[in-house]
Amino acid sequence: MGDRSSIEWTDATWNPVTGCSKVSPGCQHCYAERLAHRLKAMGVAAYRNGFEVTLHPHVLELPLHWRRPRRVFVNSMSDLFHEDVPEDFIRSVFSVIARAPQHVFQILTKRADRLVEIAHRLSWPPNAWQGVSVESDAYTWRIERLQQTPAPVRFLSIEPLLGPIPKLPLDGISWVIVGGESGYGHRPADPEWVRMIRDQCLQARVPFFFKQWGGRTPKAGGRLLDGRAWDQMPQPAEIRV
Fold this sequence. Notes:
- By secondary structure, this protein is an alpha/beta fold.
- An eight-stranded mixed β-sheet has the order 1-2-5-6-7-8-9-10.
- Helix 3 runs parallel beside helix 4.
- It is built from five helices and ten strands, in the order βββαββαβαβαββαβ.
């Protein structure tokens, strides 16, 4: 339940929870759902419930055994703030994060309402990076919820990008990731949508990371935007509180 990752902006994944449910258009072609059903068919015990929300307390302490510092994507196969994940279990995840200061933990959610509801009841260690997923202008309200939390580092994952976002709220945001959709039935990202976000990040001096154009596979369209790769990451001086 912890693996090295091919995701460009992280080093490893850690899945104390697996399974999720769809909440918005960005979920339509969920890679995690496809993978979970494949793993269930292969007989992988952790995915015996397919894509139903399942807790895995036995892997909670896994990152404590990783000595080399890593960027760790928390619940790449789920959403930590899903309504079916008990608050006590979320606290347990945060406890492990606090006990593993050698790593940076990257948490993403689409459940921004639940995030802001319980955020002030959580202890936020400095190595906990909290992000929200936003696929179009209709979901920038998730960013406003994120901005209300005491998370020490706040970031955005705008993937899959499904439409233009002309006014991206960037106050208190330390990092923006953008990516197109990949896999069967992928919806293409317009280059002008990507440039629009990049230019807002440049103007606000927020690190910008372009993950992929997408296509039938994640690598199909490449990663270059206007002839170059954009791999900016937050540095200590750029982290906004």
